[in-house]
Fold:
Amino acid sequence: MLDNIEHLTPAQIVAELDKYIIGQHDAKRNVAIALRNRWRRMNAAESIRGEIVPNNILMIGATGVGKTEIARRLAKIADAPFTKVEASKFTEVGYVGRDVESMVRDLVEQSVNMVKQKKKEEVKARAAELVEDVILDALIPPIQGRNNAPVSYSSDPSVMPDTDYELNERTREKFREKIRNGELEDRKIEIRVQQSSMPGVGALAPGMDEASMMNIQEMISGMMPKKTKKRKVTIAEARKILLEEEAAKLIDMDEVKEEAIFKAENSGVIFIDEIDKVASSSKKGGGGGPDVSREGVQRDLLPIVEGSSVNTKYGIINTDHILFIAAGAFHVAKPSDLIPELQGRFPIRVELNSLTKDDFYQILKFPKNALTKQYEALLSAEDVELTFNDEALDEIASIAFEVNAEVENIGARRLHTVMSRLLNDILFDVPDKISANAHIVITRETVQEKLSGMVKNRDLSQYIL
Structure:
C-alpha cells in the first residue's frame, strides 16, 4: 500500500515539498518524519506493529503561511487518502450541525474513489475491447451462422463471400479498423445506458444529516432493478460513457471496499483546520461559564483522534493509525486552551513563521505552481508571451509584504490580490488590443505604475480577501 514512499527518505520528502512550498522547514521536517514513520510501521515486526501509533501534529501559524498546502502536498506524495475539514463546522452531538465522525466517512469515501480509479486503470484495456464490440454491434449488428453458431470464413479479400454471415463479418472487420483509426468519431449511434432507478429525495428527515440521507437513497436504489435508456450520441461520446460502465462491471467492489478500508486505516491523513475556533478561553476569564458547543466538539473529537471504530457504508474503520494534522492561527485562544486530553493527542507542535519579503520573492519565482508561471501559462493559451524580470518580482514582493504589515496579514494569499491588480488591464486587452505573438515584459516601473495607489491608499478593504 505504501510502496511508493519506500524509497523516499525524510530528506527527499522535504525536497519534494520544497518544489511547491517556500520556507517552513520545521513543519516540513516533522511531516516528513510522520510520513516515513507510516512506512516504517508497516514494515516493523508484526508483534509490535499494532502498538505503534502515529504522532499527530498541531501546526500553529497565521493564515496563508502554508499549513494546508503542506498537508495536501504530503498526501499527494504518499498517494494517500486525504480529507480536509473545518473544525468550526462541527457541533456537539445533539446540536444542529455535522457530527465529527463524518470526517472519517469522508476519508473512506476518498479512499474508495482512489482504489476504484486504480482498479479501472488496470482493467482499462479489457474494457476498451468490450466497448469496441458494443460500438461495432451498434454500427453493424452481427449475424449468427447456421443453428446460431459462428462459422469460419475466408479473410482473403479477393475471395467473394459465399454467405450473408461471411459478408457481415468482413464488413464488421472493415468498420472495426475504421473505429480503431478514429475515422468514425463523429458518426452518431444509438446505445443503451444505465439510468438512476430512483430520483433524489429533496426533504431531509428530522435529526438526519445529508450524508445519512444519501446512504439511505443508495441502499434503496441498490434494491431497485437497474433501468436502461436509449441515447443517440457520437462514437467519441459513446466510448467515454461505455468505458465507465464496462470498467465498473469488471471491478470487484468487495475487493475495492476491503482495500480502501485498509488504505484509509493505515495511510489516511485527516487535516483539521481552524482547530483554534473550538478552543474556548472563557475559563481564563472571570464571569462566563464554559462554551458547551465548543468544548463538546473537542470531547467528540477526542475518541476519533485517540482511536475508535467508526461505522461507514463500506464497513467499520478503525482510526488508531490515521494521521491527524490540526492547524490554527491561535490569535485569540492558545493551544493550552484546548482540553488537556486533546492536547495530549497532538504531541508534536510546530510553529510556522510569518512570511518575509524574501519569502514572497521566492514564492513568486521558484515553486512549480508559482503565480507568475500560472499567468504565463494563461496568456500562452492566447499565444502571448509574458515574462517578469527579477526587479519586478522584488517590487511585487515588497508591496505585498508592506500591505500585509499595514492592513491585515493574510500571508501568501495577498499575492493573488496584488498580481490580479497588476495584470488586470493586460488580461482584459488580450486578444482585442494585444494580438497574438506579442511579448510583454513586466518591469519594476510597470509594477510601480500599476500598484502605487495600492500602497498609498490605507483603505484597502476592496482588496482584502
User: Anything to note?
Assistant: Residues 283-290 have pLDDT under 50 and may be disordered. The chain is about 50% helix and 10% strand. The first helix runs from residue 10 to 18.
